[in-house]
Automatic annotation (TrEMBL):
Organism: Pantoea osteomyelitidis
Keyword line: Oxidoreductase
Protein name per its UniProtKB record: Aldehyde dehydrogenase
Upper taxonomic lineage: Bacteria, Pseudomonadati, Pseudomonadota, Gammaproteobacteria, Enterobacterales
Ranges of residues in domain Aldehyde dehydrogenase: 24-485
SUPFAM superfamilies for this protein: ALDH-like
Amino acid sequence: MLSFDPEKVILPAGHYIDGQHCDTQGEQLSVNRPSDGKPYATLSEAQAGDVDRAVTLAHQAVKASGWASASPRERGKVLRRWADLIEQDATLPQLEALGSTRPISDVVNHEIPFTAEAIRFYAECADKYSGDLFPTRDSSLGMLVPEPYGVIAAITPWNFPLSMASWKCGPALAAGNAVVLKPSELTPFSTARMAELAVQAGLPSGVLNIVQGSGAVTGSALVAHPLVRKVSFTGSTLTGARIMSDAAYHGMKPVTLELGGKSPQLVFDDAGDIDTVAQRILRGFTANGGQACVAGTRLIVQRAIAEPLIARLVALCQTFRPGVTWDETSRYAPLIDARQGNKVASVIAAAKAQGAQVLVGGERFADTADGWFWQPTLLSAPGADNPAVEQEIFGPVLTVQIFDEEEEGLQLAAHAIYGLCAGVHTLSLPRALRAMRAIEAGTVWINRYGRSGDFIIPTGGFLGSGIGKDLGRQAFQACQRQKSVLIDF
Ligand code: NAD
């Protein structure tokens, strides 16, 4: 029985610093449930002084506790215990489902195992990557020695609170750093509980601290803090640009930036079974109510199969039903809040004003109290300059464009700002490989859409979709800096 009573979930105090949940004196931010819009908690926003305390303690703890200098295998053991506790914890799924857009069954069956496995992957990385030896004169020795940065600031969005935290904390902690993490102010509590479990697993107190608050106050103080040596961020492209500039200004700190997307789904007339392709496209733009950076939101389909594919998609979209995230039968996610709902509505209105036609959906589901559940929406929007084609909407909205020749399809797949992911659907291997080469995106999925559970495959965007990679050994190595050493003997 996974369903639960949202009024009975016990919330931790927002911040988690030096092994303690704690409150601060900052401004009180209201936190609302996405499923019905109801306020369920207030959060005291961490001010610059609170951030200073969290970062300074992390800086001291990572050295004093021996975490940075511990044998990598010891760090791996702690991370593996942490992953076990995350999987076994009874309160974590409810905290995640209550405050985020993820239905409880999805949290239990996907988000929690995926979070735990990401941490296990980095536990395995801890002792797998070494430095280098260089050919030098006989009487000298040249080496490249990897070392942790010290304190890494992590800043995460609201769409996948737990797994985003694991992608940041797993590699950083495995490499011997301390982390101060600021989750989204819209989804604060599950991450605070996750940090408490890390300390229960044996992570020294203070090595992972959570500070809560808005980006403008808490986030910017964290990026600017002089003891923060690196910033790892996931969120929108606009915020990423701001963080990159702040990180440069306050100490030329390296950044990993996982940003927005507007990913194409390029379907050729030899893509195979229409129903299978339709199911793939559908999942690609409706998962988490379309609130996924990797959402495949631009269908670009070859004319010969456009009509049957669109007809199948329209029929599938009509089967969706809203349901609160604490009900185990719910499958479809609400939008995070009214602000996001109004954004989806306004882009659709602007798209229609510029000639887009609604093929299905286009409206909020009625009778869902103050929850914002948006009907899966297909928009026929031929112009590449249509707002629905240009902008990341972050809702379940798929634009449809039709092409005749391969070259035309590839041109439509390109985007002026984003280059996060792309789906290519064709049974012709040469065509798939030509498209893979031509498309400017950090990830190309061929005859699938979405990640596998293979954490070894990194993820990250080109162009305005980001810099650097999360996941894979690349994310672990990005949490180490490389020291060049030359010894004469
Ligand atoms: P957002 O950029 O508004 O906020 C992300 C985080 O940054 C939040 O914690 C926020 O408080 C913080 N923040 C905001 N301003 C800041 C500042 N000036 N300094 C420091 N921190 C600041 O994004 P969001 O609305 O929470 O999430 C949705 C966005 O995230 C979408 O654009 C989505 O594509 C992107 N995203 C990308 C990936 C990826 O892997 N590429 C994954 C998930 C989400």
